[in-house]
Design brief:
- This protein starts with 6 loop residues before the first helix and ends in a 6-residue tail after the last helix.
- The protein has 37 helices and 26 strands.
- Helix 16 packs across helix 22.
- Among the domains are: 28 residues, no CATH class; 264 residues, Rossmann fold (3-Layer(aba) Sandwich); 191 residues, Rossmann fold, CATH 3.40.50; 162 residues, Rossmann fold (3-Layer(aba) Sandwich), CATH 3.40.50.1000.
- With 1056 residues, it is α/β, with parallel strands linked by helices.
- Strand 25, helix 36 and strand 26 form a beta-alpha-beta unit.
- Helix content is 41%, strand content 12%.
- Belongs to the glycosyltransferase 1 family.
- Its EC number is 2.4.1.14.
- This is Sucrose-phosphate synthase.
- Homodimer or homotetramer.
Length: 1056
């Protein structure tokens, strides 16, 4: 264990105390314990259970104490600390057991209820017992890898892709990403994921049928990092794309696109990126729209070419991909790389830190929530191994392997799943480029064979850097390549090597542990591991047998593998858990047998390659025996080498990308619905769809909104299966009508009746009016009706001049229904034309104001409904919610009063509303969110109206997403928008503050329910809100209109 190399000397010190511990003068603690053995207790409770490096400092003080009595006291205190650690560990283990038992019970209950709702008998396919046994085509995939293994098959597949011109977006936010000379191992954020995403983008860009690949990451202009990370765009040069060069176009290929977000001059760790995710999303949205339009001009016949998929890598990028997927209505893919729940469980098991401490350090709860959102939104979740599915993803509320299998079987049989959805788990191991790799021949006793055409090249410089450490550099090299992180388990490897004399006599050990200049400048964790390694080398006197060079370049890594292969060495990965193990594949490509951990991806890799041995990473004797076996048995070594070289093609990038693209092709195509194949697309920015207000008024009576009911047609809860045909028919007619309007069928201009002087001067009413505004002010204050009205008047008064001129438009963003909005407008003496748009029902409905009294005050945007209806559970969801509301009761109350009741009059097709009778009881929203995820019902649960209402809306709908829709649909620049919010708000409050738009926080507004609403969040608001952003300002308490105008002046929007 890292940092515990002092154990032997500590045990000797305890033994030196000798009988004194048992005599009558010993402490009360030791007398009460009778035959207490601190040595045995220390070994049993610490050595076998902890990695507690902090005890080392206590031991140093004890060892330096000359007085036997004081020394004994210090050792006794250490025993007390050890006992306390053991108690904490047992407490954490008990809590973990209880937590897992509760999770199992909830999942089984949810599965039973889901199965009961899906009333048909289970089919044979639903009774399977293995995760992901059935492929998309119905055949079994058990025990084999879905890979191409024939050049002919690849050529056939490639010929089928010709003619396709796909646009794919990949996202990886943290770390330092560039195409060449990657600084892998520089820090914990720049590791294997960075290399994987760059090579994936490069490989996809060279595939037939793929026109462009964008890898979106963070732009970093910091003096702490190289200038190349501040370049906006970097083209990834294809490795081997001669066969597809004829398909290259003006903007084709693979690119790294760096989006500026977060602190402009700082390189920050991934844990600090969470508050800045909305800013990235807005910037990425801008890039994707621009690129889609450019590609449309080049290859789309003038129509935008939207991404066929957006693929997020790791939780932060997955959260971003989900928001972008919702804003653009395109499919999403997700790869976790490592998962938060698994990391949380591992840290808690160590017994060293509490859950709160873990969350403070790693922002783990925000990460877990992002991963749950990815399960809600992703079409496909790509994993490297089955172990990741069976042991890690099943820890999440949103994924149940058994229920996933049942849903998949029902979909295959075209049977309704009653609104339930589960992402498809696809095992696609990472790929590699092998065309440039030549396995090392020859050995250290003779030079590598050369010829006249290919003469032997001189030894690479990195060989000298390594071999200078060795007394006998001709011995086989045991190679480990990992950063000095405790989970990589390097110290156990050094112990295994140091304590096995036969292994030391036969081989050398090479440790490539990233790059370093000064150990004192490294992070505390990395420096601790490295110091432990150095102490172990000294302890076992391994000088001349272990190499640990300070520096290496990424381009040196192939030469390092070649050196190990040339010496007939072995590659080892002793990590406690390895999600996949890309280095194992790289080593096999260079002809190196492997010894690897039995936990995680190496199991699947060894099953395919059959080129090495698996070990228990906690057992140093197992590690030493496996290494010794491969180094000593030359026939076994040669057989493992040959197997690896023979099977390595199964992990090539072309085959990885073929499987990847096949998965994308299986996703249902989605894109912004107003972009139709029959849409003329002839409108310019100056004469865009709907430029005339009359266009939308002349569609049909079906489009009119009546305040007699929440919408035209059936009531909000009339979602029965019998009416599905009528609903579809009505929607089809409405979409055709809106399509005709969007194409500008009736361009009738009329005089505007509003006070907008611009309209009066031009005599032409453009629709929607917000397109012509210089700025858009979004009033998103989650207050009472009286408070909202007072705030609205103050804002209007603050910008009265600009409002009259028409340079500022207003949007009301609220959890209220459109009927409640109408009542609010009438009661406040306002006009619907004071606002350009209304985001209602927490973002599930979007309306525009109209100027024709005959058509009513509002017009609904039906395209917005089609935009957000992804995975909307409709009737199946409603039934579950009604059942949940009926079962909710205050257990502490004497009469068991129902906490939540159905609010039929407030519900619509895309918003199911509930009234909270007692807002102060329990974390209702958090519990409901878990319940729905466990039952595979994907939606967005929002606590609103000062905690008195719950709105359940589509999973990718929200008030902040509605603003992004307005940008995508109408080109409303987000950077020109200002959001007014209170000091607190609904549970979607955090989404309103981040992003490219400006935010004004009105101090003292909505502050009374801060603790109540934020209790439904599993992480503090400060973890996700950039309060230090220059785009956010706060007004004084009980602000006036003048205070609001001063705040706008600070944002650089108005002159006071």
């Amino acid at each position: 264990m890292a940092g515990n190399d002092w154990i032997n000397s500590y045990l000797e010190a305890i033994l030196d105390v000798g009988p004194g511990l048992d005599d009558a003068k010993s402490s009360l603690l030791l007398r009460e314990r009778g035959r207490f053995s601190p040595t045995r207790y220390f070994v049993e409770e610490v050595i076998t259970g902890f990695d507690e490096t902090d005890l080392y400092r206590s031991w140093v003080k004890a060892a330096a104490t000359r007085s036997p009595q004081e020394r004994n006291t210090r050792l006794e205190n250490m025993c007390w600390r050890i006992w306390n650690l053991a108690r904490q560990k047992k407490q954490f283990e008990l809590e973990a057991t209880q937590r897992m038992a509760k999770h199992r019970q909830e999942r089984e209950k949810g599965r039973r209820e889901a199965t009961a709702d899906m009333s048909e008998d289970l089919s044979e396919g639903e009774k399977g017992d293995t995760v992901s046994d059935i492929s998309a085509h119905g055949d079994s995939t058990r025990g084999r890898l879905l890979r191409i293994n024939s050049v002919d098959v690849m050529e056939t597949w490639a010929s089928q892709q010709k003619g396709k011109k796909l646009y794919i977006v990949l996202i990886s936010l943290h770390g330092l990403i560039r195409g060449e000379n990657m600084e892998l191992g520089r820090d914990s954020d720049t590791g294997g994921q960075v290399k994987y995403v760059v090579e994936l983008a490069r490989a996809l860009g060279s595939m037939p049928g793929v026109y462009r690949v964008d890898l979106l990451t963070r732009q970093i202009a910091s003096p702490d990092v190289d200038w190349s990370y501040g370049e906006p765009t970097e083209m990834l040069t294809p490795r081997n794309s001669e066969d597809f060069m004829d398909e290259m176009g003006e903007s084709s290929g693979a690119y790294i696109v760096r989006i500026p977000f977060g602190p402009k001059d700082k390189y920050i760790p991934k844990e600090l990126l969470w508050p800045h995710i909305p800013e990235f999303v807005d910037g990425a949205l801008n890039h994707i729209i621009q690129m889609s339009n450019v590609l449309g001009e080049q290859i789309g016949g003038g129509k935008p070419v939207w991404p066929v998929a957006i693929h997020g890598h790791y939780a932060d990028a997955g959260d971003s991909a989900a928001l972008l997927s919702g804003a653009l209505n395109v499919p999403m893919l997700f790869t976790g790389h490592s998962l938060g729940r698994d990391k949380l469980e591992q840290l808690l098991k160590q017994g060293r830190v509490s859950k709160d401490e873990v969350n403070t350090t790693y922002k783990i709860m925000r990460r877990i929530e992002a991963e749950e959102l990815c399960l809600d939104a992703a079409e496909v979740v790509i994993t490297s191994t089955k172990q990741e599915i069976e042991e890690q993803w099943r820890l999440y509320d949103g994924f149940d392997p058994i229920l996933e299998r049942k849903l998949r079987a029902r979909i295959k049989r075209n049977v309704s799943c009653y609104g339930r959805f589960m992402p498809r788990m696809a095992v696609i191991p990472p790929g590699m480029e092998f065309h440039h790799i030549v396995p090392q021949d020859g050995d250290m006793d003779g030079e590598t064979e050369g010829s006249e055409e290919h003469p032997a090249s001189p030894n690479p410089p990195i060989w000298f850097e390594i071999m200078r450490f060795f007394t006998n550099p001709r011995k086989p090299v045991i190679l480990a390549l990992a950063r000095p992180d405790p989970k990589k388990n390097i110290t156990t490897l050094v112990k295994a090597f140091g304590e096995c004399r036969p292994l030391r006599e036969l081989a050398n050990l090479t440790l490539i542990m990233g790059n370093r200049d000064d150990i004192d400048e490294m992070s505390s964790t990395n420096s601790s591991v490295l110091l432990s390694v150095l102490k172990l080398i000294d302890k076992y006197d391994l000088y001349g047998q272990v190499a640990y060079p300070k520096h290496h370049k990424q381009s040196d890594v192939p030469d390092i593998y070649r050196l190990a292969a040339k010496t007939k060495g072995v590659f080892i990965n002793p990590a406690f858990i390895e999600p996949f193990g890309l280095t194992l594949i790289e080593a096999a490509a260079y002809g190196l047998p492997m010894v690897a951990t039995k936990n995680g991806g190496p199991v699947d890799i060894n099953r395919v390659l059959d080129n090495g041995l698996l070990i228990d990473p906690h057992d140093q004797h197992s590690i030493a025996d496996a290494l010794l076996k491969l180094v000593a048995d030359k026939q076994l070594w040669a057989r493992c080498r040959q197997n690896g070289l023979k099977n390595i093609h199964l992990f090539s990038w072309p085959e990885h990308c073929k499987t990847y693209l096949t998965r994308i092709a299986s996703c249902k195509p989605r894109h912004p619905q107003w972009q139709r194949s029959d849409d003329g697309g002839e409108n310019s920015d100056s004469e865009s769809p709907g430029d005339s207000l009359r266009d939308i008024h002349d569609i049909s009576l079906n489009l009119r909104f009546s305040l007699d009911g929440e919408k035209s047609g059936a009531s909000g809860n009339d979602n029965s299966l019998d009416s599905e045909g009528n609903v579809a028919n009505r929607r089809s007619k409405l979409e055709n009508a809106v399509l005709s309007w969007s194409k500008g069928v009736s361009n009738i201009s009329r005089k505007s009746g509003s006070t907008d002087k611009t309209d009066q001067n031009s005599g032409i009413g453009k629709f929607p009016a917000l397109r012509r505004r210089k700025h858009i002010f979004v009033i998103a204050v989650d207050d009472t009706t009286e408070g909202l009205l007072e705030t609205t008047r103050k804002i209007f008064e603050a910008v009265e001049k600009e409002r009259t001129e028409g340079s500022i438009g207003f949007i009301l963003s609220t959890p209220l229904t459109i009927s409640e909005v109408s009542s609010f407008i009438v009661s406040g003496g306002l006009s619907s034309n004071d606002f350009d748009a209304f985001i209602c029902n927490s973002g599930s409905d979007l309306y525009y104001s109209t100027l024709n009294p005959e058509d009513g005050p509002f017009v609904v945007d039906f395209y917005y409904h089609s935009h957000i209806e992804y995975r909307w559970g409709a009737e199946g969801l409603r039934k579950t919610l009604v059942r949940w509301a009926a079962s909710s009761a205050d257990k502490k109350a004497e009469n068991k009063e129902q906490i939540v009741t159905v609010a039929e009059q407030l519900s619509t097709d895309y918003c199911y509303a509930f009234t909270v009778q007692n807002p102060g009881v329990g974390n209702t929203v958090k519990e409901l969110r878990r319940l729905l995820r466990i039952q595979a019902l994907r939606c967005h649960v929002i606590h609103c109206q000062n905690g008195t209402r719950i709105n359940v809306i589509p999973v990718l709908a929200s008030r902040s997403q509605a603003l992004r829709y307005l940008y995508v649909r109408w080109g409303v620049e987000l950077s020109k928008a200002v959001v007014f919010a209170g000091e607190c708000g609904d549970t979607d409050y955090e989404g309103l503050l981040g992003g490219l738009h400006k935010s004004v926080i009105l101090r003292g507004v909505c502050s009374s329910v801060r603790n109540q609403l934020h209790a439904n969040r599993s992480y503090p608001l400060s973890d996700v809100t950039p309060f230090d952003s220059p785009n956010i300002v706060e007004t004084p308490e009980d602000c006036s209109s003048s205070d609001i105008r001063r705040s706008l002046e600070k944002l650089g929007l108005l002159k006071f």
